[in-house]
Each structure stands twice: as structure tokens, then as C-alpha cells.
Amino acid sequence: MKQSTIEKRPRRARRTRPARTSWARRVVVTAVAAASVTGVAVNVPASASVYQSCTLSTCADGSSAAKIWASKGWPSSSGWYSWPDGLYNYTGGVFQNREGQLASGVSYHEYDVYSRAKGAHRDAYRIIHASTGKVYFSPDHYSNFYLLPN
Predict the structure, then answer these.
(1) What SUPFAM superfamilies does this protein's entry cite (predicted)?
(2) Residue 143 is inside which H or E element, if any?
């Protein structure tokens, strides 16, 4: 009796595709590469997002909060402070000005605009008090600064 032998072929190794890079990452890499090849550089001046007046509807809230913080002597240590409406407001202490958007050589402190229950999460609205006496309002967590009148 003759046995038939079936020849088994070795299995092919599966090909694995490299992970695809997201479109956003591709765009960023392409832009950086193009800028480095062409020598194009973008310089944004330090005062690009500092406005000398405030016409936003929320600027009135910033001015009102600034007056209350001024009546408290612009506290320099971070913490919760009682507010006239029976709630609390927070000061984060020193504002570092890391992005250099405000004048250098000046010290700054940050204060919240809107009061809330003690310990509640902070929102994006801030007041920045400079050692020069200038007061800025930022409705978007330091992306823009609006000079408030004294």
C-alpha cells in the first residue's frame, strides 16, 4: 500500500504594517521641515496679545473684581479669600509671565474674577496685578490680556 505524502508548505510570515501617523502629526512635521529648509521663521512680539483697553462685556466683571482685590490690599499669597457675596475667590499667587507676553522686569500676581464655593474648580478668567500698578484682565487663561483702567 502506497501512502500519499502531502507536502506541507511553510507558512508565510504575516506582514505587519507600520502604524500610520495621524494627519495632524504629518502636517506639523511637514511644516517644521519646510520652515527649516526655507529658513522661514515666525516671530511673535511679546506684546502681540496685550491690548491697551478692554471692550469685552466681561471687562466690567474684571474691573469690579479688581476693585475688591485692591480693597483687600492685593494679597500676595495664594489661597481662598472671602468675597462680599458670601462666597469665596482664589488668588494663585505669583504669575510667572513665562511666555513673556507682559513687560519683563516687573513682578505679577494672579487673581480669579468670579467667586464660587470654597474649593470649587477655577475657571479661565483672571486678573493680573503688576508691581507697576497696572491691572490686566484675561478672559481666556492668559491667551489675551486687556489693560483695565485704574
Answers:
(1) Microbial ribonucleases
(2) none
pLDDT digits (tens, 9 = 90+) for 1-20: 555 556 666 666 566 555 56
The full DSSP string for 52-111 is SS--STTHHHHHHHHHHHHHTT---S-EEEE-TTSSEEEEEEEE--TT--SPTT--EEEE
| DSSP H or E segment with residue 31 | helix 23-38
Number of residues assigned to the chain: 150
Please check whether residue 88 is in contact with residue 118, taking contact to mean a CB–CB distance below 8 angstroms. Answer: yes
Residue 127 near residue 110, CB atoms below 8 Å? yes
Domain residue spans of the chain: 50-148
pLDDT at 26: 60
d(CA 19, CA 5): 42
What pTM was estimated for this model as a whole? 0.67
- Residue 124 pLDDT exceeds 60: yes
Separation of alpha carbons 78 and 113, rounded Å: 14
CATH H superfamily, domain 50-148: Microbial ribonucleases (3.10.450.30)
Express each pLDDT in 105-118 by its tens digit.
Answer: 999 999 999 999 99
